[in-house]
Amino acid sequence: MERRSVLATGVALGAGILADPVAAWAAPAPRLSAGDVDAGRRLFAAGAYTRLDEVLPLLLAGVAHSTEQDPAGAARAADVWVLASQLAVKQDRTEAAGAYASRAGAAARRSGNPVVLAAAARAAATPLRRTGRTDEALLLLKEARTHLKAGSRPTAAELDAAGMAALTAAYTAAQAHQPALARDFAAQAEEKTLRLARHPHTAGRPRELTAGQCALYRIGIHRHLGDLDTALAAARQLRPVHLPTAERRARVATDTARALLDAGDAAGAFAQLRLVELAAPLEARRPSVRTLTARVVELRPNLPSLSNYAHRTAAPPV
What number of CA atoms fall less than 13 Å from residue 78's CA on the CB side? Predict the structure, then answer.
C-alpha cells in the first residue's frame, strides 16, 4: 500500500484544524510532501506555535523516509528540521534548536540544494549565537553564501537566500560587537534586495528578502551596536503592514520594544508589546518577550492596562 502524505493522515494544516494526532500514529508512516512542509511554514508564519507543536511529530515521522528518497526528499526533510529548530527557538529551547539545526544541515548537504543549505545555516546561527559560538555561526553563513554564489547568474531563490543569509550574518556580527562586519553584511543584503526586486515573481518558495525585512533587521543590528537613535529611526520608518507575516510583524514590535527599553522609554516599550500581542498572541507569551514585560512592570508598574497585559501573557499556552 502506498504511504500516505502527512496531510492525508487527517491534519488539515492550511485551515488550522487538527485531527486526533494519536490516531494518526497508528497509520503507516506518512510520505512527506512539499505541500506538508509549506503548510507547516504557514503555521509558523502565522504565529500558531501551539498548533505547529502538535503537528510537528507528524511531519518528523515522514522525515527519515523523505531523506532516503532523493535530493528533493532530502530538501523537504531539511526544511522540516529547520522548522523544528525555529519553533524550539521560539520556545527558548536552545539545545534542542541546535540539535534540530544540525540535522537540517546534514539533510541539506544530501540535497545539494544551496538554497536549502542557506536555510539550514541560518537556523544553526541562532543557537550558536546564544551559546557564544559566534565565529562558528559566521563561518556557516559564509560557507552558505559561497555555495549560493557558485553560479554565474543566480536565480531569484538564490538571491533571496543570499540576502537573508547576509542579514543573519549582520545581526550575528552586531551581537558580537563587530560593527564594520555587521554594516558590510547589511549593505550586501540591501544590494541583493535591489537585484531581487528586478526579478519577476514566480510561484514556489515565498520570498523573504524585502526592503521591510532589511529595515526590521536594522533595528536589532543598530541596537546591538549601541546606536539606539539609528535603531529607533529604522523602527519609525518601517510600517509593519509591509511585512508579510504575523510572525514578522510581532518581531518588529519586539525589537522596537527592546530598543525603547534601552532608551529608557518603558511606556513606549509597552505600546510595542501590545502590538506584539495584536500581531501574534503567542509571541507575547514567549519567554524572552515575557522578560521584556517584566522589565516594563518593574520600571512603570502603574501604566494603564499593564497589569492586565502582564497577567494575560504571564503563562505559556497550554
Answer: 29
Whether 218 and 129 share a structural domain: no
C-alpha span between 23 and 53 (Å, rounded)? 17
The values of phi and psi at residue 217, to 5°, are -65, -30
Radius of gyration of the chain (CA): 20
For residues 281-290, give the mean pLDDT. Answer: 95
Q: What is the pLDDT of residue 244?
A: 85
Q: Are residues 87 and 199 in the same domain?
A: no
Band of residue 24 on the pLDDT scale cut at 50, 70, 90: very low
DSSP β-bridge partners for residue 5: 31
Q: Which of 142, 168, 188 is the last residue of a domain?
A: 142
Q: Are 10 and 28 in contact (CB under 8 A)?
A: no
CA atoms within 13 A on the CB side of 147: 21
d(CA 251, CA 279): 9
Of 46 and 23, more confident:
46
**Cell digits of residue 227:** 546606536
> pTM above the 0.85 mark?
yes
Q: Count CB-CB contacts under 10 A for residue 130.
A: 17
Contacts (Cβ under 8 Å, ≥6 apart) of 156:
196, 199, 200, 201, 202, 207
> Could you tell me the pLDDT band of residue 29, with boundaries at 50, 70 and 90?
low
The number of folded domains in the chain is 3
Cell of 274: 501590545
Cell, residue 37: 512542509
With CA atoms as reference, report the closest residue to 129 among 176, 92, 183.
176
Share of the chain above pLDDT 90, in %: 74
Structural domain of 70: 1-142
